Amino acid sequence: MSAASSTVRVGVVGAGGIATGAHLPTLASHGDRVEVVGLADVDADRVAQVADEWGIPGRHGGVDELLEAERPDLLVLCTPPSAHREGVMKGLRAGAWVWCEKPPMLTLAEYDEVAALEREGGPYASYVFQHRFGSGAQRLKRHVQEGTLGRPLVALCNTLWYRPHSYYDVAWRGNWETEGGGPAMGHGIHQMDLLFEVLGDWTEVSATAAALDRDVETEDVSAATVRLASGALATVVNSVLSPREVSYLRFDFQDATVEVEHLYGYDNSSWTWTPAPHVGEEAPADWTPEEDVPSSHRRQLGELLDAMAAGARPRASGDDGRRVLEFIAALYQSAETGRPVRRAELTRSGTYYAGMHDAAHDYRVAENIAGAVQTPAEEPAR
Length: 382
Description:
Blueprint: E1 8-13, H1 17-29, E2 34-40, H2 44-54, E3 58-60, H3 63-70, E4 74-77, H4 84-93, E5 97-100, H5 108-115, E6 125-127, H6 135-146, E7 152-162, H7 176-179, H8 183-186, H9 189-199, E8 202-210, E9 221-228, E10 233-239, E11 241-253, E12 256-262, E13 271-275, H10 297-310, H11 318-337, E14 341-342, H12 351-354, H13 366-370
Parallel strand pairs: 1-2, 1-4, 2-3, 4-5, 5-6, 7-10
Antiparallel strand pairs: 7-11, 8-9, 8-14, 9-10, 11-12, 12-13
Protein backbone atom coordinates (compact mmCIF):
# COMPACT_ATOMS: atom_id res chain seq x y z
CA MET A 1 0.00 0.00 0.00
CA SER A 2 1.29 3.42 -0.85
CA ALA A 3 1.58 6.09 1.82
CA ALA A 4 -0.91 8.21 -0.07
CA SER A 5 -3.56 5.53 -0.33
CA SER A 6 -4.93 2.70 1.80
CA THR A 7 -6.01 0.77 -1.28
CA VAL A 8 -4.47 -2.69 -1.40
CA ARG A 9 -2.98 -3.64 -4.77
CA VAL A 10 -3.87 -7.25 -5.53
CA GLY A 11 -2.39 -9.73 -7.98
CA VAL A 12 -4.26 -12.97 -8.77
CA VAL A 13 -2.48 -16.10 -9.97
CA GLY A 14 -4.68 -18.65 -11.71
CA ALA A 15 -7.64 -17.83 -13.97
CA GLY A 16 -9.69 -20.99 -13.48
CA GLY A 17 -13.03 -21.67 -11.84
CA ILE A 18 -12.00 -20.94 -8.27
CA ALA A 19 -10.73 -17.52 -9.34
CA THR A 20 -13.82 -16.53 -11.34
CA GLY A 21 -16.31 -18.28 -9.09
CA ALA A 22 -14.99 -17.21 -5.69
CA HIS A 23 -11.97 -14.92 -5.49
CA LEU A 24 -12.67 -12.28 -8.11
CA PRO A 25 -16.26 -11.77 -6.88
CA THR A 26 -14.91 -11.58 -3.33
CA LEU A 27 -12.32 -8.99 -4.29
CA ALA A 28 -15.01 -7.01 -6.12
CA SER A 29 -17.15 -7.01 -2.96
CA HIS A 30 -14.26 -5.22 -1.22
CA GLY A 31 -13.82 -2.79 -4.08
CA ASP A 32 -13.52 0.16 -1.72
CA ARG A 33 -10.42 -1.43 -0.16
CA VAL A 34 -8.68 -3.30 -2.98
CA GLU A 35 -7.67 -2.88 -6.61
CA VAL A 36 -6.93 -5.95 -8.72
CA VAL A 37 -3.96 -4.79 -10.77
CA GLY A 38 -2.87 -8.02 -12.45
CA LEU A 39 -3.86 -11.57 -13.40
CA ALA A 40 -1.48 -14.40 -14.31
CA ASP A 41 -2.02 -17.82 -15.87
CA VAL A 42 -0.13 -20.06 -18.28
CA ASP A 43 -3.15 -19.88 -20.64
CA ALA A 44 -2.84 -16.47 -22.29
CA ASP A 45 -6.26 -16.68 -23.94
CA ARG A 46 -7.89 -17.43 -20.61
CA VAL A 47 -6.05 -14.52 -18.97
CA ALA A 48 -7.31 -12.15 -21.67
CA GLN A 49 -10.88 -13.41 -21.38
CA VAL A 50 -11.04 -13.18 -17.58
CA ALA A 51 -9.15 -9.89 -17.40
CA ASP A 52 -11.53 -8.33 -19.92
CA GLU A 53 -14.55 -9.61 -17.98
CA TRP A 54 -13.31 -8.25 -14.66
CA GLY A 55 -11.55 -5.11 -15.89
CA ILE A 56 -8.05 -6.16 -14.81
CA PRO A 57 -5.33 -4.13 -16.55
CA GLY A 58 -2.27 -6.35 -16.04
CA ARG A 59 -2.13 -9.65 -17.96
CA HIS A 60 0.78 -12.01 -17.29
CA GLY A 61 2.05 -15.48 -18.08
CA GLY A 62 3.22 -16.38 -14.57
CA VAL A 63 3.78 -15.31 -11.01
CA ASP A 64 7.30 -13.96 -11.60
CA GLU A 65 6.14 -11.66 -14.35
CA LEU A 66 3.18 -10.47 -12.30
CA LEU A 67 5.27 -9.72 -9.21
CA GLU A 68 7.90 -7.87 -11.21
CA ALA A 69 5.45 -5.77 -13.20
CA GLU A 70 2.73 -5.03 -10.65
CA ARG A 71 4.43 -5.06 -7.22
CA PRO A 72 1.19 -6.15 -5.49
CA ASP A 73 0.60 -5.75 -1.76
CA LEU A 74 -1.45 -8.97 -1.72
CA LEU A 75 -0.97 -12.04 -3.89
CA VAL A 76 -4.00 -14.35 -4.24
CA LEU A 77 -3.15 -17.89 -5.34
CA CYS A 78 -5.86 -19.84 -7.19
CA THR A 79 -3.56 -22.53 -8.58
CA PRO A 80 -3.47 -26.34 -8.28
CA PRO A 81 -1.94 -27.59 -4.99
CA SER A 82 1.45 -28.50 -6.43
CA ALA A 83 2.04 -24.83 -7.31
CA HIS A 84 1.23 -23.45 -3.84
CA ARG A 85 4.70 -23.73 -2.32
CA GLU A 86 6.46 -21.91 -5.15
CA GLY A 87 3.80 -19.23 -5.48
CA VAL A 88 3.63 -18.43 -1.76
CA MET A 89 7.39 -18.33 -1.39
CA LYS A 90 7.80 -16.01 -4.36
CA GLY A 91 5.10 -13.72 -3.04
CA LEU A 92 6.63 -13.48 0.43
CA ARG A 93 10.12 -12.92 -0.97
CA ALA A 94 8.73 -10.06 -3.06
CA GLY A 95 7.26 -8.48 0.06
CA ALA A 96 3.63 -9.35 -0.71
CA TRP A 97 1.15 -10.83 1.75
CA VAL A 98 -0.35 -14.03 0.36
CA TRP A 99 -3.81 -15.58 0.46
CA CYS A 100 -3.63 -19.13 -0.86
CA GLU A 101 -6.33 -21.66 -1.71
CA LYS A 102 -6.54 -24.99 0.12
CA PRO A 103 -4.80 -27.24 0.82
CA PRO A 104 -2.13 -24.87 2.15
CA MET A 105 0.79 -27.06 1.05
CA LEU A 106 1.36 -30.66 0.00
CA THR A 107 3.36 -31.46 3.15
CA LEU A 108 4.17 -30.16 6.61
CA ALA A 109 7.78 -29.70 5.50
CA GLU A 110 6.64 -27.35 2.73
CA TYR A 111 4.42 -25.46 5.17
CA ASP A 112 7.33 -24.87 7.53
CA GLU A 113 9.64 -23.88 4.70
CA VAL A 114 7.16 -21.21 3.63
CA ALA A 115 6.51 -20.03 7.21
CA ALA A 116 10.23 -19.40 7.67
CA LEU A 117 9.98 -16.58 5.12
CA GLU A 118 7.40 -14.64 7.12
CA ARG A 119 8.53 -11.60 9.07
CA GLU A 120 7.21 -10.00 12.24
CA GLY A 121 4.58 -7.49 11.20
CA GLY A 122 4.24 -9.06 7.76
CA PRO A 123 4.17 -10.15 5.11
CA TYR A 124 2.33 -13.29 6.21
CA ALA A 125 0.80 -16.16 4.25
CA SER A 126 -2.75 -17.17 5.12
CA TYR A 127 -4.94 -19.89 3.69
CA VAL A 128 -8.55 -20.19 2.56
CA PHE A 129 -10.61 -21.73 5.38
CA GLN A 130 -13.75 -19.69 4.87
CA HIS A 131 -16.14 -21.90 6.86
CA ARG A 132 -14.68 -20.83 10.19
CA PHE A 133 -15.55 -17.18 9.45
CA GLY A 134 -19.35 -17.54 9.24
CA SER A 135 -21.45 -16.12 12.08
CA GLY A 136 -22.84 -19.53 13.08
CA ALA A 137 -19.37 -20.95 13.67
CA GLN A 138 -18.16 -17.87 15.49
CA ARG A 139 -21.20 -17.79 17.79
CA LEU A 140 -20.79 -21.48 18.61
CA LYS A 141 -17.08 -21.01 19.27
CA ARG A 142 -17.92 -18.27 21.75
CA HIS A 143 -20.38 -20.55 23.53
CA VAL A 144 -17.65 -23.19 23.82
CA GLN A 145 -15.22 -20.65 25.25
CA GLU A 146 -17.81 -19.36 27.72
CA GLY A 147 -19.08 -22.85 28.61
CA THR A 148 -22.71 -21.82 28.17
CA LEU A 149 -23.69 -25.11 26.49
CA GLY A 150 -21.88 -27.31 28.98
CA ARG A 151 -18.87 -29.46 28.16
CA PRO A 152 -18.46 -30.76 24.57
CA LEU A 153 -18.89 -34.53 24.53
CA VAL A 154 -19.45 -35.89 21.01
CA ALA A 155 -18.94 -34.51 17.50
CA LEU A 156 -19.54 -35.69 13.94
CA CYS A 157 -17.75 -34.16 10.96
CA ASN A 158 -18.85 -35.54 7.60
CA THR A 159 -17.87 -34.37 4.14
CA LEU A 160 -19.90 -36.70 1.95
CA TRP A 161 -19.48 -35.49 -1.60
CA TYR A 162 -19.67 -37.06 -5.06
CA ARG A 163 -17.09 -36.78 -7.80
CA PRO A 164 -17.59 -38.91 -10.93
CA HIS A 165 -14.79 -40.91 -12.54
CA SER A 166 -14.42 -38.14 -15.15
CA TYR A 167 -13.48 -35.66 -12.41
CA TYR A 168 -10.13 -37.44 -12.20
CA ASP A 169 -9.43 -37.00 -15.89
CA VAL A 170 -7.64 -33.80 -14.82
CA ALA A 171 -4.04 -35.01 -14.59
CA TRP A 172 -3.13 -33.55 -11.19
CA ARG A 173 -6.14 -34.96 -9.33
CA GLY A 174 -5.95 -38.20 -7.40
CA ASN A 175 -2.13 -38.25 -7.30
CA TRP A 176 0.06 -37.91 -4.22
CA GLU A 177 2.73 -35.87 -5.95
CA THR A 178 0.39 -33.21 -7.34
CA GLU A 179 -2.66 -33.18 -5.03
CA GLY A 180 -1.11 -34.39 -1.79
CA GLY A 181 -4.02 -36.66 -0.91
CA GLY A 182 -7.62 -37.57 -1.64
CA PRO A 183 -10.85 -36.21 -0.13
CA ALA A 184 -9.25 -35.75 3.30
CA MET A 185 -6.78 -33.29 1.75
CA GLY A 186 -8.79 -31.68 -1.02
CA HIS A 187 -12.42 -31.78 0.10
CA GLY A 188 -13.01 -32.44 3.80
CA ILE A 189 -10.24 -30.09 4.89
CA HIS A 190 -12.77 -27.23 5.25
CA GLN A 191 -15.12 -29.11 7.57
CA MET A 192 -12.23 -30.50 9.63
CA ASP A 193 -10.80 -27.01 10.04
CA LEU A 194 -14.22 -25.86 11.24
CA LEU A 195 -14.40 -28.75 13.73
CA PHE A 196 -11.10 -27.72 15.31
CA GLU A 197 -11.93 -24.01 15.12
CA VAL A 198 -14.99 -24.65 17.29
CA LEU A 199 -13.77 -27.39 19.65
CA GLY A 200 -10.04 -26.74 19.78
CA ASP A 201 -7.03 -28.96 19.37
CA TRP A 202 -7.03 -32.66 18.60
CA THR A 203 -4.77 -35.08 20.48
CA GLU A 204 -5.14 -38.51 18.83
CA VAL A 205 -6.55 -40.04 15.66
CA SER A 206 -7.28 -43.62 14.55
CA ALA A 207 -8.14 -43.86 10.87
CA THR A 208 -8.78 -46.13 7.95
CA ALA A 209 -8.85 -45.18 4.27
CA ALA A 210 -9.18 -46.86 0.87
CA ALA A 211 -9.71 -46.32 -2.82
CA LEU A 212 -12.97 -48.24 -3.20
CA ASP A 213 -14.29 -47.06 -6.55
CA ARG A 214 -12.25 -44.32 -8.23
CA ASP A 215 -9.07 -45.15 -10.17
CA VAL A 216 -6.75 -42.95 -8.13
CA GLU A 217 -3.45 -43.27 -6.26
CA THR A 218 -4.92 -41.63 -3.18
CA GLU A 219 -7.90 -42.69 -1.09
CA ASP A 220 -11.45 -41.91 -2.21
CA VAL A 221 -12.89 -42.37 1.31
CA SER A 222 -11.56 -42.18 4.86
CA ALA A 223 -13.05 -42.61 8.32
CA ALA A 224 -11.44 -41.56 11.60
CA THR A 225 -12.08 -41.49 15.33
CA VAL A 226 -10.58 -38.44 17.01
CA ARG A 227 -9.88 -37.54 20.61
CA LEU A 228 -9.89 -33.82 21.33
CA ALA A 229 -7.94 -31.95 23.99
CA SER A 230 -11.24 -31.17 25.74
CA GLY A 231 -11.84 -34.90 26.19
CA ALA A 232 -14.62 -35.00 23.59
CA LEU A 233 -14.70 -37.73 20.96
CA ALA A 234 -15.37 -37.08 17.27
CA THR A 235 -15.82 -39.10 14.11
CA VAL A 236 -14.65 -37.72 10.77
CA VAL A 237 -15.67 -39.14 7.36
CA ASN A 238 -14.43 -37.79 4.02
CA SER A 239 -15.83 -39.23 0.79
CA VAL A 240 -16.14 -38.50 -2.91
CA LEU A 241 -18.41 -41.54 -3.40
CA SER A 242 -21.65 -40.22 -1.89
CA PRO A 243 -24.49 -39.46 -4.36
CA ARG A 244 -26.54 -37.50 -1.80
CA GLU A 245 -23.98 -34.85 -1.07
CA VAL A 246 -23.81 -33.13 2.29
CA SER A 247 -21.41 -31.30 4.56
CA TYR A 248 -22.57 -32.02 8.10
CA LEU A 249 -21.20 -31.22 11.52
CA ARG A 250 -22.89 -32.10 14.80
CA PHE A 251 -21.75 -30.97 18.23
CA ASP A 252 -23.26 -32.62 21.31
CA PHE A 253 -22.76 -30.70 24.56
CA GLN A 254 -24.12 -31.42 28.03
CA ASP A 255 -26.93 -28.91 27.49
CA ALA A 256 -27.55 -28.86 23.74
CA THR A 257 -26.96 -30.34 20.31
CA VAL A 258 -25.85 -27.90 17.62
CA GLU A 259 -25.83 -28.97 13.94
CA VAL A 260 -24.97 -27.41 10.62
CA GLU A 261 -25.92 -29.02 7.31
CA HIS A 262 -24.95 -27.51 3.97
CA LEU A 263 -22.90 -28.37 0.90
CA TYR A 264 -20.36 -25.72 -0.09
CA GLY A 265 -21.35 -22.95 2.32
CA TYR A 266 -23.79 -22.09 5.09
CA ASP A 267 -25.72 -19.19 6.58
CA ASN A 268 -27.61 -19.01 9.87
CA SER A 269 -30.56 -20.95 8.43
CA SER A 270 -28.25 -23.96 7.98
CA TRP A 271 -27.86 -24.33 11.76
CA THR A 272 -30.14 -25.96 14.31
CA TRP A 273 -29.88 -25.59 18.09
CA THR A 274 -31.61 -28.28 20.20
CA PRO A 275 -31.64 -27.93 23.98
CA ALA A 276 -31.25 -31.02 26.15
CA PRO A 277 -34.45 -32.22 27.89
CA HIS A 278 -33.30 -30.92 31.25
CA VAL A 279 -32.88 -27.42 29.79
CA GLY A 280 -36.42 -27.32 28.37
CA GLU A 281 -38.12 -23.98 27.95
CA GLU A 282 -35.29 -22.21 29.76
CA ALA A 283 -32.97 -22.44 26.73
CA PRO A 284 -31.22 -19.07 26.27
CA ALA A 285 -32.60 -17.01 23.44
CA ASP A 286 -29.11 -15.80 22.53
CA TRP A 287 -27.76 -19.20 21.48
CA THR A 288 -28.18 -18.20 17.84
CA PRO A 289 -26.00 -15.47 16.23
CA GLU A 290 -27.02 -11.83 16.32
CA GLU A 291 -26.02 -11.31 12.66
CA ASP A 292 -26.18 -13.54 9.60
CA VAL A 293 -22.76 -13.83 7.97
CA PRO A 294 -22.44 -16.69 5.44
CA SER A 295 -19.34 -18.87 5.34
CA SER A 296 -18.00 -17.16 2.27
CA HIS A 297 -14.57 -15.90 1.29
CA ARG A 298 -15.82 -12.34 1.87
CA ARG A 299 -15.54 -12.23 5.66
CA GLN A 300 -12.14 -13.94 5.64
CA LEU A 301 -10.77 -11.43 3.15
CA GLY A 302 -12.13 -8.59 5.26
CA GLU A 303 -10.24 -9.89 8.29
CA LEU A 304 -7.11 -10.36 6.21
CA LEU A 305 -7.27 -6.76 4.98
CA ASP A 306 -7.69 -5.60 8.58
CA ALA A 307 -4.63 -7.63 9.58
CA MET A 308 -2.61 -6.10 6.75
CA ALA A 309 -3.55 -2.60 7.90
CA ALA A 310 -2.53 -3.45 11.47
CA GLY A 311 0.62 -5.39 10.55
CA ALA A 312 -0.76 -8.35 12.53
CA ARG A 313 -0.80 -12.06 11.82
CA PRO A 314 -4.20 -13.04 10.34
CA ARG A 315 -6.21 -16.07 11.36
CA ALA A 316 -5.75 -19.25 9.28
CA SER A 317 -2.00 -18.70 9.11
CA GLY A 318 1.03 -19.84 11.09
CA ASP A 319 0.27 -22.52 13.69
CA ASP A 320 -3.44 -21.76 13.27
CA GLY A 321 -3.28 -22.73 9.60
CA ARG A 322 -0.98 -25.71 10.25
CA ARG A 323 -3.26 -27.59 12.68
CA VAL A 324 -5.57 -29.20 10.13
CA LEU A 325 -2.62 -30.11 7.90
CA GLU A 326 -1.03 -31.86 10.91
CA PHE A 327 -4.27 -33.74 11.42
CA ILE A 328 -4.39 -34.91 7.81
CA ALA A 329 -0.80 -36.13 7.98
CA ALA A 330 -1.63 -38.06 11.14
CA LEU A 331 -4.82 -39.44 9.56
CA TYR A 332 -2.84 -40.86 6.66
CA GLN A 333 -0.15 -42.16 8.98
CA SER A 334 -2.75 -43.97 11.08
CA ALA A 335 -4.53 -45.37 8.01
CA GLU A 336 -1.27 -46.67 6.55
CA THR A 337 0.30 -48.03 9.74
CA GLY A 338 -2.86 -49.39 11.33
CA ARG A 339 -2.29 -47.72 14.68
CA PRO A 340 -3.45 -44.58 16.50
CA VAL A 341 -1.31 -41.47 16.08
CA ARG A 342 -1.00 -38.89 18.83
CA ARG A 343 -0.41 -35.26 17.96
CA ALA A 344 2.41 -35.19 20.50
CA GLU A 345 4.23 -37.83 18.41
CA LEU A 346 4.46 -35.64 15.31
CA THR A 347 7.99 -34.63 14.48
CA ARG A 348 9.69 -32.34 11.98
CA SER A 349 11.22 -35.25 10.12
CA GLY A 350 10.22 -38.59 8.68
CA THR A 351 7.83 -39.97 6.07
CA TYR A 352 4.71 -38.08 7.14
CA TYR A 353 6.51 -34.79 7.60
CA ALA A 354 8.16 -34.79 4.19
CA GLY A 355 5.02 -36.26 2.59
CA MET A 356 1.51 -37.45 3.37
CA HIS A 357 2.09 -41.00 2.19
CA ASP A 358 4.36 -44.02 2.41
CA ALA A 359 4.91 -45.16 -1.17
CA ALA A 360 4.85 -48.78 -0.01
CA HIS A 361 1.17 -48.48 0.92
CA ASP A 362 -1.49 -49.04 -1.77
CA TYR A 363 -4.99 -47.70 -1.17
CA ARG A 364 -6.50 -49.26 -4.27
CA VAL A 365 -8.92 -52.16 -3.99
CA ALA A 366 -8.30 -53.88 -7.30
CA GLU A 367 -11.57 -55.81 -7.60
CA ASN A 368 -13.62 -52.64 -7.00
CA ILE A 369 -11.67 -50.54 -9.48
CA ALA A 370 -11.97 -53.25 -12.13
CA GLY A 371 -15.75 -53.22 -11.82
CA ALA A 372 -16.17 -49.46 -11.68
CA VAL A 373 -18.80 -47.98 -13.98
CA GLN A 374 -17.50 -45.00 -15.90
CA THR A 375 -19.93 -42.07 -15.80
CA PRO A 376 -19.72 -39.02 -18.05
CA ALA A 377 -21.50 -36.64 -15.67
CA GLU A 378 -19.60 -33.52 -14.79
CA GLU A 379 -19.39 -32.04 -11.30
CA PRO A 380 -18.04 -28.69 -10.15
CA ALA A 381 -14.36 -28.54 -9.24
CA ARG A 382 -14.13 -27.57 -5.57
